[in-house]
Amino acid sequence: MDATNAPQIVEYASQSVNFTPFATKWIPCSPRFVCLGTNPRNTGAMVVYELNKGKLKETAKVTTPAGLKCATFGASFFEKRQMATGDYKGKLNIWDLNNMKKAVFSVQAHSGIVHCIDGVGGLNIGGGAPEIVTGGHDGCVRVWDPRQTRPVCSIEPAKGEHARECWAVAFGNSFNDSERMVATGYDNGDLKMLDLRAQKLVWECNVNNGIVDLQFDRKDIEMNKLAVTTLESRFRIFDMRTYHPSEGYSCLTQKAHKSTVWVAAHLPQNRDVLTTLGGNGTLNLWKYRYPAKRREDDGKGNPKGVMGSLDLLNSKRFSEQPIVSFDWSMDKPGLCTMCSLDQQVRVAIVTKLNKV
After folding, report:
1. Which pLDDT score is estimated for 53?
2. Are strands 32-38 and 44-52 parallel, antiparallel or unpaired?
3. What secondary structure letter does DSSP report for 137?
4. Which of 110, 272, 292, 355 has its CA 20 to 30 A from that of 333?
5. What are the tens digits of pLDDT across the range 118-161?
6. Is the Cβ–Cβ distance between 133 and 144 less than 8 Å?
């Protein structure tokens, strides 16, 4: 890409924190975001920051009984702005950010750490009722309706089987009131797809390395692309439009960061632009380019997906430690927040995204 038109990645503000941060999330329709993690005494920390004249201003802080690992606003309505969190004692909590003294909903979701969480049906994204999916240390994946305390659906290891930790979950294919898929990733590299409408496993494969993060490029359309980040410096893009009976979904594998790829995040305003965040403290900005035709015949009458290519638009190093969470602003294209294990939370701006 022409360097004069290439997006630039600029650090806008940063703030050191006195806890280990694990997740940052923009509060919808506001200049504020939440950073959460674990204090030295294994209690949880949840801090709200506001952008204020080029600096980050702390506006609220709460300590919770257990360390916090993950969060999502995906099942919240705009008016309520309620955030769902998973903690180290296996609890799923929902918090009202206007009164954070006590969770408005709490349930024992897993027997160990809640590693990952995602939501759909809120924020005008996805059809159907709001739902939350959690994945845990116990190897279980559970789907929750925030109006009840029992899971809508639960995927559990077979009795006597060694439980593989679930490290990543993602909702997708929620383009109407009945369709909805959940993708799950495990520490041994297993990738599984569950159809919630049919209540069955529809696809699985192994990507050879532990899966750290999953994200569909859009939750509220028919499945298009799925980004999968793993250990050993790799991430993959799956074309989810064409399923081959023996080879499954086509896949593009990309090496990056020379370390674990912790996060993949698609730009909300352009699903073909995504960032990956690495264990070496770098942010890479990518553009996916579609092939001339997205499917071809395999010679036996079966359609097979054709992969495009990935262009690296820019890269910037922010930290010496892994960047473990990243979130784009839905309201301001290019505005993003991230946190890293050097106990820093940052806000950055990516420019010229309208030209890619």
Report:
1. 86
2. antiparallel
3. T
4. 292
5. 999 987 888 888 999 999 999 999 999 998 999 999 999 988 88
6. yes
One-letter amino acid of 185: G
What pLDDT sits at residue 122?
87
How would DSSP label each residue in 184-231? Answer: EEETTSEEEEEETTTTEEEEEEE-SS-EEEEEES-SSSS--EEEEEES
Q: How distant, in Å, are the alpha carbons of 42, 50, 60, 84, 103 from that of 63?
A: 10, 19, 11, 16, 12
Tokens of 104: 């408005």
In 3D space, the residue among 340, 351, 332, 352 whose CA is nearest the CA of residue 32 turns out to be: 332
Give yes or no for a contact between 164 and 190, defined as CB atoms under 8 angstroms apart.
Answer: yes
DSSP string, 32-58: EEEEEEE-TTS-EEEEEEEEETTEEEE
Whose CA is closest to 237, among 271, 268, 196, 269? 271
State residue 226's pLDDT score: 98
- Residues 82-121 have pLDDT tens digits of 999 999 999 999 999 988 889 999 999 999 999 999 999 9
